[in-house]
Amino acid sequence: MTLDAEGMNVTARAGLNGQAPRCDHIDLLPAVEPGLPECKECLALGQTWTRLLVCLTCGWVACSDDSRGSHARAHYRETDHPVVAVLDPGSTWRWCYVHRRTV
């Protein structure tokens, strides 16, 4: 048995063929509607963004880490809302800030 830093059984949570453990945060997400497709913080500062992310806990939309402001990460630090998704139609990419990986 392999334990993680918190003493939890990692082997029991692991995916197939050595994949990373499942992110339990995904199971806890409510259904949310994303806000307007803009980063309000960037607009207030007169900045532009590269990509927009939506918080899957509350629907807040903010710029990604590859944008100058990294406002989505700042939202995570303020709220502890763990998972974001790209605000692009048809995209399935999601990121968990807690596990620091795609989920």
Entry summary:
This is Ubiquitin-hydrolase Zn-finger-containing protein. The protein is α+β, with helices and mostly antiparallel strands. About 20% of the residues lie in helices and about 15% in strands.
Structural commentary:
The longest helix is centred in the last third of the chain and has 9 residues. This protein has three helices and five strands; from the N terminus they run ααββαβββ. It is globular. The two termini are 23 Å apart. By secondary structure, the chain is an alpha+beta fold. The chain has a five-stranded antiparallel sheet with strand order 2-1-3-4-5. The chain has a single domain, classed as 2-Layer Sandwich (Herpes Virus-1).
**How many angstroms does the end-to-end distance come to?**
23 Å
Structural class, from secondary structure content?
alpha+beta
How many domains, in number, for the residues?
A: 1
Helix content: 10-25%
